[in-house]
Design a protein that fits this description.
Radius of gyration: 22 Å
Number of helices: 22
Number of strands: 0
Shape: globular
Helix content: 55-70%
Order of helices and strands: HHHHHHHHHHHHHHHHHHHHHH
């Protein structure tokens, strides 16, 4: 399989020579990019991931209150009579970004596809076993620790439904802890009842599954980029079709007899994001250079289009729009000197470093805070305190769990290879 990467890469160079790919970045343009996009690590991508993780934290704070459910599949509105006077703020002002949590997960998926594919398409590949081991120590030990934290908090608080908060909030921690429930979470089985301890894990379930086949996916996209993109879009269209989608959701909601098929179909729905990320990796320099050479008016329109796609609900086919918006904004950020300088600022680089911890830890903290202040008139103050507390907790979790797990993975993989040949984990 790994020889196939080199063969596909050589074929890609041949296609480029025939005009099948955008022109490479010129020496002058490459010098203007610091660090160059050919570098082993592109730190701006870490910062984008960190910003997306922060948006998800704010989204969960917003979703804790009983706002009308702007669900992408026409879910009935919640009772939000007390909040209706403020609803316009989250529709027509920059605060709308707070409601873009699901689209931000799409940004995670695109970035994972891009960052994981970059070393492979550039020929810096390692064995499949080493790839899986890196992914395991990058993803699983922090995830298991977050589930353990949620179990401890849930057991200590013995929660029940909290009046005045949303159905989404009360859907978590709504079953008594038992060994089978915890095991189902740790095994990442996928149905909704097995996500309640830390429901952000739904996206991690799909990422882990796609990671198992990711090298093969990269190889297929390198050899047949257009057919693979069309196939991923077709899968999304089939799974998002109302009849299929409603059947799938029913199986996952009630753990029906066909739930294994339903959860695999649910994972297939997100293949488009990873295929798009791989395509960005294949043509990154040319696409960024094309945007850099476009006029200010065109770039301004592209920024508006990218933000508009991410901030708009498009119904069951919204994933296609979000994937396009995420890809466009990533390219625009990498092609703008000002955006790159901002993303390389120390606070945003720190945010990127702890982004995975920031994805895992805040929701158990949010659940605990709201149950602790369930009957308190200061409940909203506790909710407002969650974002800064989440940042502190993410930093601590990174130092105590995530970074040691990555170091252990690197120690297990130590052998006489060139350091640059090791792909940076997403």
């Amino acid at each position: 399989m790994w020889k196939g990467f080199r063969a596909a890469r050589a074929a890609g160079r041949s296609l480029h020579a025939r005009g099948g790919q955008p022109a490479p970045v010129t020496e002058t343009a490459a010098a203007a990019l610091s660090p160059p996009l050919s570098a082993q690590r592109i730190p701006e991508l870490d910062a984008i991931r960190g910003l997306a993780a922060l948006v998800v934290v704010l989204f969960h704070c917003w979703k804790t209150l009983p706002w009308p459910e702007y669900g992408p599949y026409g879910a009935p509105p919640l009772d939000a009579s007390g909040l209706m006077p403020y609803e316009w703020l989250f529709r027509y002002t920059p605060l709308r970004i707070v409601t873009a949590g699901t689209a931000s997960v799409g940004v995670f998926f695109i970035l994972s596809g891009l960052v994981l594919a970059l070393p492979m398409v550039r020929g810096r590949v390692d064995g499949y076993g080493s790839f899986l081991l890196k992914r395991f120590f990058r993803l699983y030990p922090p995830f298991a620790a977050a589930i353990a934290l949620s179990c401890v908090l849930c057991a200590a608080l013995d929660p029940g439904a909290v009046a005045g908060l949303s159905g989404w909030f009360n859907h978590s921690w709504d079953e008594p802890l038992r060994p089978g429930l915890v095991a189902a979470h740790l095994l990442m089985l996928g149905p909704d009842p097995y996500l309640h301890l830390d429901n952000v894990m739904w996206s991690l379930v799909h990422e882990v599954r796609i990671s198992l086949l990711f090298p093969l996916l990269v190889l297929a996209v390198m050899r047949r980029p257009a057919p693979m993109l069309a196939a991923a879009a077709l899968v999304l269209g089939v799974v998002s079709y109302s009849g299929v989608f409603l059947w799938m959701r029913h199986q996952l909601d009630v753990v029906g007899p066909w739930w294994p098929l339903a959860t695999l179909l649910d994972t297939a729905r997100y293949l488009l994001y990873f295929v798009a990320g791989i395509l960005l990796a294949l043509r990154l320099n040319g696409l960024v250079e094309a945007l850099r050479r476009s006029g200010p008016a065109l770039r301004g329109l592209a920024w508006c289009l990218g933000l508009g796609l991410l901030l708009t609900r498009f119904g069951p086919f919204g994933d296609a729009a979000w994937a396009l918006g995420a890809a466009l904004l990533i390219l625009l950020c990498l092609g703008s000197a000002r955006a790159r300088a901002l993303l390389r600022a120390a606070p945003l680089q720190w945010l990127g470093k702890v982004s995975y911890s920031l994805s895992l830890v805040p929701l158990p903290l949010l659940l605990a805070l709201m149950h602790m202040f369930a009957d308190s008139p200061r409940r909203l103050y506790a909710l407002a305190a969650l974002p800064p507390l989440a940042l502190l907790a993410a930093g601590l979790f990174y130092r105590c769990v995530e970074a040691p797990s990555q170091r252990l993975g690197r120690r297990l993989l130590q052998r006489p290879v060139v350091a640059a040949d090791l792909p940076t984990p997403a």
